[in-house]
């Protein structure tokens, strides 16, 4: 994309947001190179800001345009579909892709800074009493909750009496975090989730979901020891 193309796209996106009575100023563009100058706290705050924008845009795609990142925009003949707003969907998708790339860069930098911090404190930690080295499950849970906020899959169907229903999952639930480390950035269109489910049959898996405005943590145990098919008893679709 050339500079001129970028300016046109940015102007069109801002115009679309204004037409939808949304504040276009809340959707920002970022210079990835500047991320390296930020400290851990600043990166964390920026990550929260970006993921908030992503949540708004994903909801807008789904609720306003009945579309997602996989919705086909052309007919089998290669012409733009007439039953959806192709231009608006494309503008929103472009911004989502940019923000996702920014989010990935920030996560990578956060992981680097965490690794550096752990390495610098390694000797100190090894000398601490055992009770001080033990991490708090509540603290670990809080870190995960703050770090991951973007849903990447939706429960589209629940089979009665299956593992998913027994765990408390409901149709419409959106998965934010699966087994504490599969999230919106690394799930590879649910491929990683499928692999994890197969590898942890009959074992508990923590699942963080979004239900309405509420975030809920559930425990899911994949198993084939039930009357239905599959290990979960539900159907998941990418968001």
TrEMBL record:
Region (Disordered): 120-140
Entries under SMART domains matching the protein: PDZ
Domain PDZ: 103-213
Any one cellular-component term (Gene Ontology): nucleus
Keyword Chaperone attached: yes
GO biological process, any: proteasome regulatory particle assembly
Keywords recorded for this protein, A-Z: Chaperone
Stored Pfam families: Nas2_N, PDZ_2
Keyword Chaperone found: yes
Protein's name in the database: Probable 26S proteasome regulatory subunit p27
Organism the protein comes from: [Candida] subhashii
